[in-house]
């Protein structure tokens, strides 16, 4: 039907390379998060004040006992980085699950039923968009004290707007297609029309949003932790590591560079993955 | 004689409100305007008309996909709005125009065909598989094709899947909305023959909507001609094609392209003004384009006058004798039942 529309975007090889690189980066970080403790013999919480700020292996005086050196309290930096990957991934995934559930439910209901229901959903989206996420997070954490669960709750309850917008607009497109009409004529209930006909056909678009939201959640967690309002110390979140390292960055620059680079690479990888997914769907979905 | 018609439509009307701009008054588009007709059980009513005349809206109203603005749709004597979704599905089913849009790309063919059975909620899995396989065989698809996704099938095969889905519940009525116009010419005949064979075998009633007169002539026992939301002529198929009563029907028939080189597109004298359902002309709605219009046409909407095979709404058909008029009205009433 739309052969003319299925012009591949960008060069095929470059796009596929980006997708592969993104998958590789996210895969490696996810693996590190899962395997965690078995990757390094060192304990991320064990302090050794006699071995503070040991340099990493590639600098003069570095060794393999602490491949990425140690921080200002003598804790092994590789162990903390790997443990921090676990925190970043868990926060990213849980936030996306929570916000995805909220946003998709609202968007699909509004887009499918239209009318009054859609007005309510649009109003909810507008309200959500006028709430500054960081300020609310600061206020909530300031009132209730910081904890890992609270960060996930705040982010999960606030980052659903893009899910809702995308789910709503794609549902409105799919709703008017003949196969949804056919399902209605076949006597399907509205719930089964939503679950069997609409959701599978918008899932790919939601997957792209999920990658973007995951990157955003990881960055926000790092920002909150940097401000001291994210996960509480001594948990080794990457944002917290950057915050703790900023006092030492002039004489021991690696302590701020290592978590900074890790954060950059992970978010970069997730975004590559999202872009790649979108391009892949763009060509595959076109009939 | 008192048999209940499969489909009965009473004073059906559907108006869409179209917003033109931020401050403009919304315009009213009358897609279906006070339409009344019946389709006797076991027959095929073809509905023809140019694009925008309201035939697809009519189909969607009869399927219950759109609520009417006024009037009633009765299926097998029962009001469509009163039926629950399962009972409705057992009575009336659609075959849509574009088989690339009417099949869910994420489901296997056997699941698409089984969907109406699954929606009934009381069909066991084994029974469902058996009936799906039987239906696939009936429309000429192999069990192996049942495992595929729609994207792996050709247009004709997809339309066979859509037909199988429509018939798996053994409904009495099938609404075919341009079922062949998205298909290659070589495949159209196969699908039409399949539909005709299935109608004979299963005793179905079709409402067959098309803009293609040759297709309608081939399948329909009666034909209704729609113009700007009204049925302006209704007649037995043979009589309509032999002796069309309404000037619009005549121009429609004259506009059929002939495969003869050098003839070009026939000039039927309709002009190049397109009819606008948001701005329906007063009196006879066809008069601005009618080659035979006279002073009465813009003033008065014509009633239905008898023709050889049915009725047509045109002042030219008026018979002077009062007896004939009464007869025409009676025959129209009879046809409407």
- What pair of chains forms the biggest interface? A-B, 19 and 32 residues
The share of residues in helices of chain B is 25-40%
**Low-confidence regions of chain A:** 1-8, 283-287
H/E order of the elements of chain B? EEEHEEHEHHHHEHEHEEHHEEH
For the record, the count of structural domains of chain A works out to 1
Question: How many strands, which pairing sense, and closed or not: the largest β-sheet of chain A?
Answer: none
**Arrangement of strands in the largest sheet of chain B:** 6-7-8-3-9-10-12-11
Low-confidence stretches of chain B: 321-330
Give the biggest beta sheet of chain B.
8 strands, mixed
Q: State the CATH class of chain A.
A: Mainly Alpha
DSSP summary, beta strand count of chain B: 12
Beta-strand percentage range of chain B: 15-25%
- Count the strands of chain A? 0
Note the main attributes of this structure:
heterodimer, A: 287 residues, mainly alpha, MetI-like fold, 10 helices, B: 337 residues, alpha/beta, eight-stranded mixed beta sheet
Question: How would you characterize this protein structure?
Answer:
Chain A is mainly α. Chain A has a single domain, classed as MetI-like (MetI-like fold), CATH 1.10.3720. Helices cover 69% and strands 0% of the residues of chain A. Chain A contains 10 helices and no strands. Chain A has helices spanning 12-35, 77-113, 115-129, 133-144, 148-158, 161-175, 178-185, 190-226, 238-245, 254-285. The longest helix of chain A is centred in the first third of the chain and has 37 residues, at 77-113. Chain A is elongated and about 75 Å long. In chain B, strands 6-7-8-3-9-10-12-11 form an 8-stranded mixed β-sheet, with helices on both faces. Chain B has a 4-stranded antiparallel β-sheet with strand order 2-1-4-5. The longest helix of chain B is centred in the middle third of the chain and has 18 residues, at 185-202. Chain B is built from 11 helices and 12 strands. Chain B has a domain at 247-337. The termini of chain B are close together. By secondary structure, chain B is of the alpha/beta class. At the A-B interface, helix 7 and helix 8 of A face helix 2, strand 6 and helix 3 of B.
């Amino acid at each position: 039907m739309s052969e003319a529309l299925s012009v591949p975007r960008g060069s095929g090889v470059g796009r596929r390379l980006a997708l592969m690189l993104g998958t590789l980066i996210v895969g490696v970080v996810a693996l590190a998060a899962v395997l965690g403790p078995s990757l390094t013999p060192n304990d991320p919480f064990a302090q050794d004040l006699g071995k503070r700020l040991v340099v990493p292996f590639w600098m003069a005086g570095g060794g393999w006992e602490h491949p990425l050196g140690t921080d200002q309290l003598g804790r092994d930096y590789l162990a903390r980085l790997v443990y921090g990957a676990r925190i970043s991934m868990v926060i990213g995934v849980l936030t996306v699950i929570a916000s995805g559930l909220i946003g998709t439910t609202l968007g699909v209901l509004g887009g499918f039923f239209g009318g009054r229901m859609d007005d309510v959903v649009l109003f909810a989206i507008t309200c959500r968009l006028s709430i500054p996420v960081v300020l609310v997070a600061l206020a909530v954490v300031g009132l209730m004290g910081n904890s890992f669960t609270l960060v996930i709750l705040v982010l999960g309850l606030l980052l659903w707007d893009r899910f809702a917008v995308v789910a709503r607009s794609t549902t409105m497109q799919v709703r008017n297609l003949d196969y949804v009409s056919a399902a209605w004529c076949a006597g399907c209930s509205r719930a089964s029309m939503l679950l069997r006909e609409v959701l599978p056909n918008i899932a790919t678009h939601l997957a792209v949003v999920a990658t973007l939201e995951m990157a955003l959640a990881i960055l926000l967690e790092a920002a909150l932790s940097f401000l001291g309002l994210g996960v509480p110390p001594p948990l080794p979140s990457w944002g917290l590591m950057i915050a703790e390292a900023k006092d030492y960055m002039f004489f021991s620059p690696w302590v701020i560079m290592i978590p900074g680079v890790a954060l950059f690479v992970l978010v970069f990888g997730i975004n590559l993955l999202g872009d790649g997914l979108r391009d892949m769907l763009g060509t595959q979905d076109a009939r | 004689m008192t048999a209940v018609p499969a489909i009965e439509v009473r004073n059906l009307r559907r108006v869409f409100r179209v917003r033109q701009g931020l401050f403009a008054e919304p315009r009213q588009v009358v897609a279906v305007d006070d339409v009344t007709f019946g389709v006797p059980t076991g027959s095929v009513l073809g509905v023809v008309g140019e694009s925008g005349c309201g035939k697809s809206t009519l189909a969607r109203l009869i399927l219950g996909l759109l609520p009417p603005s006024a009037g009633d749709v009765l299926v097998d004597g029962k009001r469509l709005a009163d039926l629950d979704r399962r009972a409705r599905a057992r009575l009336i089913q659609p075959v849509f125009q574009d088989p690339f849009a009417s099949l869910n790309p994420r489901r296997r063919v056997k699941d698409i065909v089984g969907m109406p059975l699954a929606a009934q909620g009381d069909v066991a899995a084994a029974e469902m598989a058996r009936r799906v396989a039987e239906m696939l065989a009936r429309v000429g698809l192999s069990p192996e094709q049942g495992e595929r996704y729609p994207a792996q099938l050709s247009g004709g095969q997809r339309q066979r899947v859509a037909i199988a889905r429509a018939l798996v519940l053994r409904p009495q009525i099938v609404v075919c909305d341009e079922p062949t116009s998205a298909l290659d010419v070589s495949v159209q005949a196969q699908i039409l023959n399949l539909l005709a064979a299935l109608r004979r075998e299963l005793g179905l009633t079709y409402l067959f909507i098309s803009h293609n007169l040759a297709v309608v002539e081939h399948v329909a026992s009666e034909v209704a001609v729609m113009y700007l939301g009204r049925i302006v002529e209704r007649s037995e198929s043979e009589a309509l094609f032999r002796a069309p009563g309404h000037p619009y029907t005549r121009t429609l028939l004259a506009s059929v392209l002939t495969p003869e080189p050098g003839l070009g597109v026939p000039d039927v004298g309709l002009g190049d003004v397109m009819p606008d359902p948001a701005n329906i002309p007063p009196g006879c709605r066809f008069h601005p384009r009618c080659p035979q219009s006279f002073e009465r046409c813009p003033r008065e909407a014509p009633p239905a006058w008898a023709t050889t095979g049915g009725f047509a709404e045109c002042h030219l058909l008026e018979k002077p004798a009062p007896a004939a008029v009464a007869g025409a009205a009676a025959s129209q009433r009879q046809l409407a039942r």
